[in-house]
Amino acid sequence: MKHYFLSAALLLGILAACSNPQNETAMSRNETLENLKTRRSIRAYQDSVPDMNLLKQVIEAGTYAPTGKGSQSPIIVAVTDRETRDYLSKLNAGIMGTSGDPFYGAPAVLVVLADKSVPTYLYDGSLVMGNLLNAAHAVGLGSCWIHRAKEVFDSEEGKALLKKWGIEGDYEGIGNCIIGYPAQEAPQPKPRKADYVYFVE
Ligand SMILES: Cc1cc2nc3c(=O)[nH]c(=O)nc-3n(C[C@H](O)[C@H](O)[C@H](O)COP(=O)(O)O)c2cc1C
Q: What is the pLDDT of residue 70?
């Protein structure tokens, strides 16, 4: 009988702990940490454009990145149109002097640009990129930062695209977040370097 009461009390304790909102927060925080650690750059994709609801969740997470003085200096251009995606890939390859697909077959690309007149634009845009990459992983999509957005949108062709999209202002390309359903297992991360962190206690 004594055992029965002890077990019941233990069970009630566990249930109470699980329903405690503070514990719930701690549990979901751990999920967030796991997501941050397990995200990897994906370099092989399925052809199909991801479900728009998933893409919108990722994009929304991007818009909640912190920005200097809350300036929200970046913008995100979500490209799912095949022709435009291919053209961006071609311009990007042209910067490198190659003819391959630097977007690794990803069907969509989230281009992040930021308003150069804001002193923190580069940091702001980079944090948006980080949010997009991590959010993509959180909803089961693959992603990778593809560079040379600056060069592409500094070029005449890039400027013409911005004009065509109705984007006016002094924007610099920060990065291309290619995104799609992965067609590969996530690679193992490199071990973190020994002198990454210094504790000053
Ligand atoms: C600023 C920046 C530029 C990058 N440019 C490219 C790129 O052009 N092509 C590419 O394949 N990966 C690019 N990457 C992805 C990195 O190669 C990748 O993050 C790194 O190898 C670590 O791998 P992980 O993302 O899987 O942890 C870039 C990443 C960053 C942060």
A: 98
CA distances from 187 to 136, 142, 147, 192, 197 (A): 16, 11, 20, 15, 24
Position 71 scores a pLDDT of 98
Q: Helix (H, G, I), strand (E, B), or coil: what is residue 171?
A: strand
- Domain boundary assignment for the chain: 52-180
Tell the residue nearest (CA) to atom 28 of ligand 1: 145
Mean predicted confidence (pLDDT) in 99-127: 98
4, 5, 52, 123, 162 from 9: Cα distances, Å: 9, 6, 47, 51, 64
Protein residue closest via CA to atom 30 of ligand 1: 145
pLDDT single digits (tens) 92-102: 999 999 999 99
CA separation for the pair 53, 66 (Å, rounded): 23
Starting at the earlier edge strand, list the strands of the sheet with 108-115: 74-79, 108-115, 171-180, 142-146
Pocket of ligand 1, beta carbon within 6 A: 40-41, 43, 144-147, 189
Closest residue to atom 15 of ligand 1, CA basis: 145
**Average pLDDT of span 150-157:** 98
What is 52-180's CATH superfamily?
A: NADH Oxidase (3.40.109.10)
Q: Is 63 helix (H, G, I), strand (E, B) or coil?
A: helix
Share of the chain above pLDDT 90, in %: 86
